[in-house]
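Bench notes, afternoon.
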Amino acid sequence: MVLIADGMSIDGVTLTRWYNAYDQASGKIDTSKNLSIDQMASGLVRTYWQANGVVGAITDSAPAGTALATGVKTMDKFIGVSEEKKPLATILETSKNIGKATGLVATSQIMHATTAAYSSHFPDRSKEAIIAEQQVYNSIDVVFGGGYGNLQNREDDEDLVNVLKNQGYQYLTDKKDLTNAKNKTWGMFAESAMSYEMDQKTLTPSEPSLSEMTKKSIDILSKDKDGFFLMVESSKVDWAAHANDPIGMISEINAFDQSVKAALDYAKKNEDTMVIAITDHGNSGLTIGNKQTDTTYSKDSVDKFVAPLKKAKLTGEGIGKKISGNTDNLVKIMAEYGGISDLSTEEIAQLKAVLNDEKKDKQALYGSNMQALYGQLISKRASLGFTTSGHTGEDITLYTYLPNDERLTGTINNTDIPKAIAKIWGIDLSKETKNYYTDAKEALEKLGAKVSIDDSDQNNVKLVATKGKTTLEIPENKNYVLLNGKNKELESVAVNVENTFYVNNKALKLMK
């Protein structure tokens, strides 16, 4: 199992640990309280991206996710493809080839960069409609997260929910239905991203927690006698960090840690299971302490940094939704749900100004303007600092659990992680890439076929090859081809990158 907390900083983990240890009623700290991941810390991981001879110190989730999924570093914004834009076989895809069940879980839309990197291939992470189609046709046994907005009312007129049902999947939209999920299942619990876990009880009670989705995934996938591969992402640690919202960060780091606990509980009972927990990159440059503590840090106790945070009941995003453009209840909601009861006149004016901007659909770079402002207000009271609203380039902590304590240790590269899994399973990722993703035109022409692109429907492009009385049609983003009009299923999807089609070698054997 691979669990990823997107954009989780080291100080974010430390702050969460102190937050959990602090008892608000007594003001006491229980230093014996630890996170589940603490017992797994085993090394450091370098996260830089590299392409065209350039080394980038600070990575984005797309190349970072691709490195973790394929063992290859690539360009910024690329998903599951090399710097030459050629598809790369992922550890999830190749695990299917040796008979293992597979699963994906996220709290963002499942088409977002990290989960997309394990299950799709395209040189632009923003093309979520393409990514969704590839995911639906990629034969993943269990998928839980947000993103049903990408499955229906599409420009290609394909109803991907109906496709899933026709493929035999149970399709869920409410956490109460998780109990009945037993076999192949897609659960889409939000149109786009799911709520922060801290906000779910108040704002979206129909959404399951990350740990609930993780436990159910393990329950279903572990029925496969050949084992399974599960990738779980706590997606919105990253989003909260971009908004500099420490409450959101704590919410999702705790959600991530509960999911790690679920994975560890299973692994310790079944001593044939590897658990790797990691972040794909740092984010925000959170510091416990800021300019306010320049001369006081040696005297400041933990409660100075944590006590203001413990008063909050919602994240900055949740508070924005609770206020919902109504300035009349702003002060009351900030006190009751944000834990800030001492707003100054200037701060109230700032909040009202942001609310007016939100009505005009003005958005911050990440999250809402309200979430970003709330982050500033609560961080000032907790003496927390942030260096950026973007990503950061530090080495990140590696957390591993393996039977017999044969863990990954030292400082390694993010590309080493899928290679380590592949080695245990006897998989050669580069060899599997050649099997899964061959340049179809080039290979078919070598077989004597005439090849053309049928783009009469721009939303459903296909490659057509003819040789004698044989016609092979290869639709983009599908896991099947048409041989003289009859469906032939493949082990991987066909990928169309700028009218170059890449297809599984089994399709070429059909033409032979």
